[in-house]
């Protein structure tokens, strides 16, 4: 029997904490049958921060989503969560159009609160992009990571002669925690930019020290810097993580026993647990483009 990859120890061939739910053929047994033909991680596999986070939180979720391609089960609609997600989509779209040079102020004002209030906050207290005249909203960048690839999708990428800055809209995060500076999203976003910024610089590489990431919400901003030492540490961490995933037998990608993780998982019903919440905006954006659209910039 394969040993677990980060999940709980197993009993009798299935996770000790696993509860079967649904009708015949559902749950873990169906996944076990699928594992016989499951695709293992191969060279060229495209990782994202969402995929890496899925594995770190629950290898079983990674296996279902990225190896077996199991769709999210239908879940009861939470009106409050659906509204929050819709507001996030609309704000991101307004910001995208604004940074493309389109006039959207009237559209935002007519939306009413809280969207109109958020937009007013952006107009009166925008992220500091002085010195970064080139603005690229909603772009993706992909770079090599060992024998794999690592992709990031940026809400806004601003480029200047002496540096580059990523902006990420964190509308639902109040307040912004300094912990975000060590978050997996921060690590992936800055690493990818450090490795692949020549795509936007006509072959000229910007040093890690000239890169930064701004998390913005209607009340505050959090600026995260970068440097060569952090870049080297991030490379070692990310290469180690993807190697661990690649070496893990899909059959050993077991569910974790963590109520907080399960309560936010779209696959919770497959484990006999209450249906998880809907995706966060950032996760939904990445899940919508698992292989990325044609406009993705590919760094060699």
Outline the fold blueprint.
Blueprint: E1 10-11, E2 14-15, H1 27-35, E3 46-47, H2 49-57, H3 59-67, H4 79-99, H5 105-110, H6 115-124, E4 134-145, E5 148-159, E6 164-169, H7 184-196, E7 211-216, E8 221-225, H8 228-247, H9 259-262, H10 281-288, E9 297-298
Parallel strand pairs: 3-5, 4-9, 6-7
Antiparallel strand pairs: 1-2, 4-5, 5-6, 7-8
Helix pairs in contact: 2-3, 2-7, 7-8
How would you portray this structure in words?
Helix 2 packs across helix 3 and helix 2 (49-57) runs antiparallel to helix 7. Helix content is 36%, strand content 16%. 33% of the residues are buried. The chain has helices at residues 27-35, 49-57, 59-67, 79-99, 105-110, 115-124, 184-196, 228-247, 259-262, 281-288, and strands spanning 10-11, 14-15, 46-47, 134-145, 148-159, 164-169, 211-216, 221-225, 297-298. The chain has one domain (1-71, 127-289): Alpha-Beta Complex (Lambda Exonuclease, Chain A), CATH 3.90.320. It has 300 residues and is an alpha/beta fold. Mean pLDDT is 82; it is low at 8-37 and 288-295.
């Amino acid at each position: 029997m394969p040993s677990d990859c980060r999940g709980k120890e197993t009993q009798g061939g299935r996770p000790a904490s696993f509860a079967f739910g649904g009708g015949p053929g559902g749950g873990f047994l169906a996944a076990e049958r699928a594992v016989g033909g499951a695709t293992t991680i191969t060279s060229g596999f495209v990782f994202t921060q969402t995929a890496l986070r899925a594995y770190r939180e629950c290898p079983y979720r990674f296996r279902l989503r990225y190896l077996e391609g199991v769709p999210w089960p239908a879940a009861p609609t939470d009106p409050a969560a659906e509204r929050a997600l819709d507001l996030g989509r609309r704000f991101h779209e307004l910001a995208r159009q604004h940074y493309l040079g389109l006039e959207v102020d009237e559209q935002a004002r007519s939306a009413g609160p809280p969207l109109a209030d958020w937009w007013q906050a952006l107009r009166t207290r925008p992220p500091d992009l002085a010195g970064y005249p080139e603005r690229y909203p909603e772009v993706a960048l992909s770079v090599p990571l060992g024998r794999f690839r690592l992709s990031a999708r940026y809400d806004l990428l601003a480029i200047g002669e002496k540096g580059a800055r990523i902006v990420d809209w964190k509308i639902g995060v109040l307040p912004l925690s300094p912990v975000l500076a060590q978050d997996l999203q921060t690590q992936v976003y800055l690493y990818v930019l450090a490795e692949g910024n020549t795509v936007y610089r006509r072959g000229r590489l910007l040093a890690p020290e000239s890169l930064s990431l701004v998390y913005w919400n209607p009340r505050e901003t959090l600026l995260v810097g970068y440097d060569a030492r952090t870049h080297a540490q991030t490379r070692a961490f990310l290469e180690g993580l993807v190697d661990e995933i690649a070496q893990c037998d899909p059959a050993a990608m077991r569910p974790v026993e963590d109520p907080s993780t399960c309560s936010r998982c779209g696959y919770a019903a497959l484990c006999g647990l209450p249906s998880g919440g809907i995706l966060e905006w950032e996760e939904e954006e990445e899940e919508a483009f698992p292989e990325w659209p044609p406009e993705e910039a590919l760094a060699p």
